[in-house]
Amino acid sequence: MTFKAEVFRILIASPGDVGNDRDIIPQVISEWNDLRAASSNIVILPVRWETHSAPLLGERPQQVINEQLVKDCDLLVGLFWTRIGTHTGLSESGTVEEIEYFIKSGKPAMIYFCSKAAELDKIDIDQFKQLTEFKEKLRPIGLVESYSGSQDLKEKFARQLAINIEHLVKNKGSIPISKKTISKPEILEVMKDRSIYIEDYEKDGEIRSFLVKGDTAQLKNQLKEFGGRWNKGLKGWVFPQSRKIEITEFLKKHS
């Protein structure tokens, strides 16, 4: 039976090293459609440059992709592992430029960093350093997620996709990850200034807490009141994962 539906396009963005993890996103989207599309009158379409772009001369390659794919998508899912990608002439990589495009447009972006082990002799140190710096730039402007492997990514994305689709429907394409506290130009400035940021803390293979790091001197009293514990060795304030959203909102307002 046919039904009328609102369609949302989800852009899948990543460098080339994430492998099969990139294929998990359309799999989860397909499962979401199978279970919820008819009852919710919402259909989600995965968008990838491999399937949705066409050869065209006259512009930068990334600009062609931006025009053909990025500008019409409603939500971005970004995956990273050890590489950030190739410089586009404007940004550190195509994936980074796409994330910046979404931020400027006020559109939501879900960013995942893979924490599984990589063979050291296959890691490009410069790429890994740039990726680490980019990850730290993102922390002050919202939540990023880590995953330990393909199954972990599938479980987390399935749950978190449902949350953000609900927000998309309510806000008609705009999840206010930081609109209430900072404007779009200020978001990009925060990405350049990582004076205070949040970092997940993994112990015994599990992430149960996170650290607030950087120049926290002016906020130390408030962080203590929130129950933070200063760890000299880790050079940061330790909080349980359950406080992440609350602490992130506080930092966005006061850092």
Description:
Helix 4 (94-105) packs antiparallel against helix 7. A five-stranded parallel beta sheet has the order 2-1-3-4-5, sandwiched between helices. The model is unreliable at 173-187 and 190-194 (pLDDT under 50). It has 255 residues and is of the alpha/beta class. Helices cover 42% and strands 21% of the residues. It has nine helices and nine strands. The protein folds into two domains: 6-193, Toll/interleukin-1 receptor homology (TIR) domain (Rossmann fold, 3-Layer(aba) Sandwich), CATH 3.40.50.10140; 195-255, no CATH class.
What is the C-alpha radius of gyration, as a whole number of Å?
19 Å
> What is the mean pLDDT?
84
The largest beta-sheet arranges its strands as: 2-1-3-4-5
Number of helices: 9
Largest sheet: 5 strands, parallel
CATH topology description of the largest domain: Rossmann fold
Secondary structural class: alpha/beta
Give the proportion of residues in helices.
40-55%
Distance between the termini: 53 Å
The CATH superfamily of the largest domain is known as Toll/interleukin-1 receptor homology (TIR) domain
- What count of domains describes the coordinates? 2
Which consecutive residue ranges, at least 5 long each, have pLDDT under 50? Answer: 173-187, 190-194
**Number of distinct beta strands:** 9
Helices and strands, in N-to-C order? EHEHHEHEHEHHEEHEEH
CATH class of the largest domain: Alpha Beta
Instruction: State the assembly state of the protein chains.
Output: single chain
CATH level-two architecture of the largest domain:
3-Layer(aba) Sandwich
Shape by Cα distribution: globular
